[in-house]
Amino acid sequence: MTYQAPVADIAFALRHVADLDSLQQEGLYPEATPDVAAAVLEEAGRFASERIAPLNRDGDRVGARLEGHGVVTAPGWREAYRDWSAAGWNGLAAPASFGGQGLPLLLNAACLEMWNAASMAFGLGPLLTMGAVEALGSHGSPALRAAYLGKLVSGEWMGTMNLTEPQAGSDLGALRSRAERRDDGSYRIFGQKIFITYGDHDLTPNIVHLVLARLPNAPAGTRGISLFLVPKYLLDAEGRPDRRNDVLCAGLEHKLGIHGSPTCTMVFGDKEGAVGYLVGEEHRGLACMFTMMNNARLAVGLQGVAIAERAYQQALAYARERRQGRSAGWREGGMSPIIDHPDVRRMLMEMRAKTVAARGLCYQLAEALDRSRRSEDPARREDAQNLAALLTPVAKAFATDIGNEVASLGIQVHGGTGFIEETGAAQHFRDARIAAIYEGTNGIQAIDLVTRKVPLGDGRVMAGFIAGLRNSLEPMAGTPRFAGLAPLLLQPVDALERATAFVLAALRDRPADALAGAAPYLRLCAVAAGGVVLAREAMAAAAIDPHDPAHRRRIDTLHFHATQIAPPAAALATGIMRDHADAGLETVF
Amino acid sequence: MTYQAPVADIAFALRHVADLDSLQQEGLYPEATPDVAAAVLEEAGRFASERIAPLNRDGDRVGARLEGHGVVTAPGWREAYRDWSAAGWNGLAAPASFGGQGLPLLLNAACLEMWNAASMAFGLGPLLTMGAVEALGSHGSPALRAAYLGKLVSGEWMGTMNLTEPQAGSDLGALRSRAERRDDGSYRIFGQKIFITYGDHDLTPNIVHLVLARLPNAPAGTRGISLFLVPKYLLDAEGRPDRRNDVLCAGLEHKLGIHGSPTCTMVFGDKEGAVGYLVGEEHRGLACMFTMMNNARLAVGLQGVAIAERAYQQALAYARERRQGRSAGWREGGMSPIIDHPDVRRMLMEMRAKTVAARGLCYQLAEALDRSRRSEDPARREDAQNLAALLTPVAKAFATDIGNEVASLGIQVHGGTGFIEETGAAQHFRDARIAAIYEGTNGIQAIDLVTRKVPLGDGRVMAGFIAGLRNSLEPMAGTPRFAGLAPLLLQPVDALERATAFVLAALRDRPADALAGAAPYLRLCAVAAGGVVLAREAMAAAAIDPHDPAHRRRIDTLHFHATQIAPPAAALATGIMRDHADAGLETVF
């Protein structure tokens, strides 16, 4: 079972959940006309389905291999990447001034979903490059930008992010890699980094590493970290890759999933020191990293959506074809397709409802990021910034959590066949698992939401968000078709409001109580907002044609969410609004 | 990180959640004295931790391999199995008349948990043998029993269950393997079976296959299936393995997990037909299989508990050792162990609460099976049979679902390290995934609960079960320590009562509505009953010594379940008590 890019569903979400049209109409992205958007989605869908999806199995089976100190990617990956970057996909949302196409992040988000659904291990590489573009574009010196940015935007060279060290994962303040100043203004970098995604590979003739390290006089902790650009090959006078820099891949991890993506142990300065160039100011490296964090977290959230969509498509195809037993309504001879069994329909509907909700949240985040960059009115820009700040941890954690849940359901729909690797459902399950961990574990996301985002503007940002959810649901009460669902959808919104008051109060004098409920608080928030995503889709569908199958499916998906997913999520408030000792969390393990 | 059998926790559950002591005191299992039980647990724990646990990694990495038509198990497995069976573990709960030790299934359940926690792929083999003992002991002719039963009870030979065919998985009525009668009273079997666990291996000199097939005159569907015993080697006049039978392993599956357990495609009758012997009556094979179903489902449920316990131990050890960041209460220098972070504590507590609840439900099922076999009073025997019937799908599905959930949390606690295969957390996640599928998928379990178990005695069995849950919680209301938790624990019990009334009414004239909610109904039932399991542990712990760390942990685990797990589960009732169309399940996918 291969992947068919769900272009119609994606376009529907871009229009009715986010608002791509108004980004163009308001003049923020004048070039993102409906025609351009449609053409982009169509072409991206075709490339994803036809060129990338077929790579996914070999990426898993053969994987990336280390030969000597060079990583060789799986069969066909080089050619696919060459054609993908040649088609300009890498720079879709990069500013035109950097050589990009300057299209909205929102449109790029839809494309990222498709690349990653086709192959998460393949789609991951460009995410890192896009992050490097972001960091270098915002903080790099003119000389550095001139030398590297164009190549990164085009995708001719790829970028990496070198943060993690064995003792410094979630806590980057603990990192030990060091940098020494040289008289020529460059630096020499020494240290070992682990878990470096696409740290080495054969897709491009050069690789641009962004590396966090400490200068000798650096303050301790996170305020003493600087960011350096360390190319794999130093450039000659014409800016072409020339001499090998003192950086190498010393090993590849043997991972549960995304085998096609090389996860490298990188050694900097094994000999004379790796030549590096400062990005931004000394000791301000973490701030530079934070500028790209929102985008990267959105991108990883989209990986969750992507793998969920892929798993859903595969389970749906299997459920239509596989016959076992006779369902109650089966009138033909022989066995019914298992999609006729209510329990299988439930699993498929849960997969669909979670996938569509997560997609909508990610797209809303992308739109907020677009508006935070381009809105002319400072107040609207700030609102968009705040919304993006709030949605970032919610979208990242929820979408990657449901990526795991949906991929697991995908196996379950297949029964025993799902446990056999050749079926492919198991690969999605294995691949999905990392997205809840990297780019800030989902626990870190929940802590970010509770301790930094909920208190924004003394709680006014969150209060405004909740009011927005309520407003969006208001039209339902007056619509006979949806009036019965409105109270169910309001349950998590009301619960979120109560839980938010608890969290804000707890943060003042008993932060452990707020932290203890961070994970369910994030889930509650996502389900409340996800309900609004599905309500937008269903209301738009009903207004267009409630009898058309695709539109009916959107209405039915809302029914499923409202009756099956919203009430248990609302009940999470009980657990959030407890002190941590009462929740048993002070126990002696 | 290896496995330390949690003998004290297991013994506590055997005494305070189930009631092993009274099985002995009432004379049902007079030989199961406290001393014997303690010695059994101690020895089993030692064997599991010291001999089996070290096999688990190579079982995964090397796996079982097919060489020619013979399966070779991973290094060390032959020796470990030899010593395990020589120690008498295989026949622990088999009747003394068959050469077993005649100890309670309840005690064996504790041992099964330990074998499977040490290595699920290793522990799985004996489960099949125990099933074969069950089927043959109940339905085999005296001659068959004389020839095969003793060897199976001792574990000198292992057994298999050959049910599944490509077109016949959950729906066994569709199977096509055929049997022909021969004049000597034997049969010849022809057909292909897939997904046959331990279908071939080198652990024992003979393998006893139990095979479902159709006779030529058989009625269609499930009422035309017969059960045959087909040995790998036919026996000579002295009953020793002699000539190879016409059955072979044609291939091994490449699976997501349990690589150490060979999953075989078995070909019967490739040449002259595999010699088989009828077990039970012609066309009554499925009834024979059903006699062993409860035990097998319990055993698979115990695999869920086992893998959850294993994953919990590993995550706990990592969380104690790994240091990142500084928790709020951290007063020492450097970083705090991550177990000090509330979100990590939450994950560990969720792992623990789910594991202990699932263990308790499985043990209660085992006790019910013991009482259904040996209670002298027919009314009590029937009560026990009914309880076992009810608990079987609940324990199997819940324990294996939480096996997946806990193993996934186990990865999450490890962060990026959890995604690396060498860590071992990923293996538990992969291994766990099959238990929700085999021995009846968890969807099949939910359907069994709703359509066959809830209606038992016109709903009186379920009503009695719910009343029992209420009774068990009653002492809490009067205890200051627990009074606040009682209403939270009653939420799912009340919800279960309402949902049960809905299901019973729906079954009468709109079964699809009952089936649509089967999965959440099962979950609700398990969480309601699991709360009582944890309440029993906590009340016993408080009565003994609430300040002892192990006892305090039991009390805290109840707090976690009551505040965090019970309320969302109770809210599942909203979704169950909807017609399937209103839940969106009539959609056009």
Automatic annotation (TrEMBL), chains A, B:
<dbReference type="InterPro" id="IPR036250">
    <property type="entry name" value="AcylCo_DH-like_C"/>
</dbReference>
<comment type="similarity">
    <text>Belongs to the acyl-CoA dehydrogenase family.</text>
</comment>
<keyword id="KW-0274">FAD</keyword>
<feature type="domain" description="Acyl-CoA dehydrogenase/oxidase C-terminal">
    <location>
        <begin position="284"/>
        <end position="449"/>
    </location>
</feature>
<dbReference type="Pfam" id="PF02770">
    <property type="entry name" value="Acyl-CoA_dh_M"/>
</dbReference>
<protein>
    <submittedName>
        <fullName>Butyryl-CoA dehydrogenase</fullName>
        <ecNumber>1.3.8.1</ecNumber>
    </submittedName>
</protein>
<dbReference type="InterPro" id="IPR009075">
    <property type="entry name" value="AcylCo_DH/oxidase_C"/>
</dbReference>
<dbReference type="Pfam" id="PF00441">
    <property type="entry name" value="Acyl-CoA_dh_1"/>
</dbReference>
<keyword id="KW-0560">Oxidoreductase</keyword>
<dbReference type="InterPro" id="IPR009100">
    <property type="entry name" value="AcylCoA_DH/oxidase_NM_dom_sf"/>
</dbReference>
<dbReference type="InterPro" id="IPR037069">
    <property type="entry name" value="AcylCoA_DH/ox_N_sf"/>
</dbReference>
<dbReference type="InterPro" id="IPR052166">
    <property type="entry name" value="Diverse_Acyl-CoA_DH"/>
</dbReference>
<dbReference type="Pfam" id="PF12806">
    <property type="entry name" value="Acyl-CoA_dh_C"/>
</dbReference>
<dbReference type="InterPro" id="IPR046373">
    <property type="entry name" value="Acyl-CoA_Oxase/DH_mid-dom_sf"/>
</dbReference>
<feature type="domain" description="Acetyl-CoA dehydrogenase-like C-terminal">
    <location>
        <begin position="479"/>
        <end position="579"/>
    </location>
</feature>
<dbReference type="Pfam" id="PF02771">
    <property type="entry name" value="Acyl-CoA_dh_N"/>
</dbReference>
<dbReference type="InterPro" id="IPR013786">
    <property type="entry name" value="AcylCoA_DH/ox_N"/>
</dbReference>
<dbReference type="InterPro" id="IPR006091">
    <property type="entry name" value="Acyl-CoA_Oxase/DH_mid-dom"/>
</dbReference>
<dbReference type="GO" id="GO:0016937">
    <property type="term" value="F:short-chain fatty acyl-CoA dehydrogenase activity"/>
</dbReference>
<feature type="domain" description="Acyl-CoA dehydrogenase/oxidase N-terminal">
    <location>
        <begin position="39"/>
        <end position="156"/>
    </location>
</feature>
<feature type="domain" description="Acyl-CoA oxidase/dehydrogenase middle">
    <location>
        <begin position="161"/>
        <end position="269"/>
    </location>
</feature>
<keyword id="KW-0285">Flavoprotein</keyword>
<dbReference type="InterPro" id="IPR025878">
    <property type="entry name" value="Acyl-CoA_dh-like_C_dom"/>
</dbReference>
